[in-house]
């Protein structure tokens, strides 16, 4: 068994109506699925990605209206990276963020790559990361109807950063249980803190890295809007997922067991520092219940929720995603 990289990252938003234009009109991602939280179908679950919603490109949001702001801290997924094709693309995004009033830092090196830090409208922390010299897991394919030119477009998920108070137990989970390998480290920008460690899996590269940060100066995160709920890792297929379930049971981690999310199959477990991991299969994919050219335009429900459609639609605040191409 060999995890292939990052599958998706799921975060929290309080405002789907503002989330949707930020991630499509400003960041240029495609809304590939407008659905609901399967564990709480009274709220939206929005999926963004490349043109087909390929695994490794999916950024998702649970909407919890009136949710308090995220308080950053340890036991958290503290930053998500988004891949862009080149160093030149970062210069494009620097100007674009200025034009749209997006809070951002400056282009700087991080883990051997040029990056650009920014925050979304709910202060979620991101890095754009250049794929200029990346030779690992392939990126996704930009949507040709995006407002962002293809040569500068976001092509998928890059490294995900975990922040914990003590790294030992998380290192054991990453290496001994999940099969990640320590690649290198890079300096923290926070004074008197340890270097940030870089772990990789599968073919390696930007789409297969987890960065592990130790912080002794922070309280535990209080998850809220602008925070990340979990990170999912890629299993090739359902048979392999069942092997992971057996392995995680043997390691005596409490877990969800097999969960059918319709668009992929999953397992969830929480490691000792409180990070929630998901292992998800690459398929069946997001075109299972919608035509590829119309992904995300209508409310999609998995079969077990379809009989409750009228009730669900009566609760959800309407979100118009059936707009003409950019």
UniProtKB/TrEMBL annotation:
Transmembrane segments: none
GO molecular function annotation: dioxygenase activity
Residues in coiled coil: none
UniProt keyword annotations, A-Z: Dioxygenase, Oxidoreductase
Protein's UniProt keywords contain Oxidoreductase: yes
Keyword Translocase appears in the UniProt entry: no
A Pfam family that the UniProt record links to this protein: Glyoxalase
Residue stretches making up the VOC domain: 5-131, 156-282
Annotated PANTHER family: RING-CLEAVING DIOXYGENASE MHQA-RELATED, RING-CLEAVING DIOXYGENASE MHQE-RELATED
UniProt protein name: Ring-cleaving dioxygenase
